[in-house]
Amino acid sequence: xxxxxxxxxxxxxxxxxxxxxxxxxxxxxxxxxxxxxxxxxxxxxxxxxxxxxxxxxxxxxxxxxxxxxxxxxxxxxxxxxxxxxxxxxxxxxxxxxxxxxxxxxxxxxxxxxxxxxxxxxxxxxxxxxxxxxxxxxxxxxxxxxxxxxxxxxxxxxxxxxxxxxxxxxxxxxxxxxxxxxxxxxxxxxxxxxxxxxxxxxxxxxxxxxxxxxxxxxxxxxxxxxxxxxxxxxxxxxxxxxxxxxxxxxxxxxxxxxxxxxxxxxxxxxxxxxxxxxxxxxxxxxxxxxxxxxxxxxxxxxxxxxxxxxxxxxxxxxxxxxxxxxxxxxxxxxxxxxxxxxxxxxxxxxxxxxxxxxxxxxxxxxxxxxxxxxxxxxxxxxxxxxxxxxxxxxxxxxxxxxxxxxxxxxxxxxxxxxxxxxxxxxxxxxxxxxxxxxxxxxxxxxxxxxxxxxxxxxxxxxxxxxxxxxxxxxxxxxxxxxxxxxxxxxxxxxxxx
Length: 496
Hints:
Elements: H1 2-9, H2 16-24, H3 26-32, H4 35-49, H5 55-82, H6 85-90, H7 95-112, H8 118-143, E1 149-151, H9 154-158, H10 163-169, E2 171-179, E3 182-187, H11 194-208, H12 214-230, H13 234-250, H14 254-273, H15 278-292, H16 294-313, H17 339-372, H18 376-395, H19 409-417, H20 422-436, H21 447-455, H22 459-467, H23 470-483, H24 489-493
Antiparallel strand pairs: 1-2, 2-3
Helix pairs in contact: 2-8, 4-7, 5-7, 5-17, 7-19, 8-11, 8-12, 11-12, 11-13, 11-18, 11-19, 13-18, 16-17, 17-18, 18-19, 21-22
């Protein structure tokens, strides 16, 4: 019986394998049109099986859930104020709430199942490989003059047609949009829209830099970088250049870092002496970005203007989860395409305050985790998490983050994985004790004590206390000698 208990307990549940297999099967799920639904089911299953332990990670998860709670509260209060309570009650299933909830759950999943490991990194580099292969397949069609490359999926053909069905169930390689004054392809691959591909591919690039095999590392970086550029997400490309350069500098030897920083300061000083104007050049850079996609910028400016007007009309409770059109003919909605303006419009000042608090908590915990970590390898993983969180901050003005939590689940899972759950660590430590302590037939009087230690909820502490008993240790050594020997945990972990 004791051997059976040890056998069952020495291998803790490995939920990370489900996540890794999901990454491997992503193209198949995408082709079937069930990628988004499968992501939701995977997250719910993994969170239901294990919840993270630790003050920092639970504070982060609670703060992300707090955005949804504030959104619900302000929406219901607005409904009461305008006499449309039941209408707002129906709107609680909006993605503006569900997205924040799943962002919190995915972060919790990453921590509870300790996803920052070598196998997960390799699975994410596979996503980079898929991006590279799919982009290579689709590019010739673009050069041949195709304006889009989209295929129906089995699920998409069953469901009634709608914009949401098109986004979430179609297998699209690229669509066309007005860029540089002409029809330009923007790649989408296995994401619902272009900006989601940009942020998701950015996550693949950063995480792939941690792969120890240089071939896979290069594959993930190249595939993710190509997908980021082909998405034509200007903010994703900007984050790729800035944070990629930052990570590269952080991995250089300390002396080389000092030389590079000194050279950069000297170059900036010389440039200022020669008439370099940072403000004017920044304005020129901004106007250049605006000129790349003028139609998109006009639409965003209109949305932001209408959203701000709505916030001024109801600054305390917002306007509820209603997204009226911002233009008579264009399919653009007030409160969309921006986390900041969206929260101000729908939830008022409390919504924006909840989001700012969430980001401050997330960064504070990540930085504290980085400063207290002594392992160089773990610190590199935390740097990736900080870079991804900074990317979210830059994205929040131009995109609604709640719409990116499920498509970009890799990013949010990695942020959570920077805080490996204490439960997982304890289980791993217990399994090592069980593996080392496997006597075949303990002597009388010891078997009952060992059995209690194995099946009790306090098994680890009881086993350690018992192993320090000299009589117990002598009995086990006698049994080991008589039965052919066994490795005792006290030999390896003695702290005398």
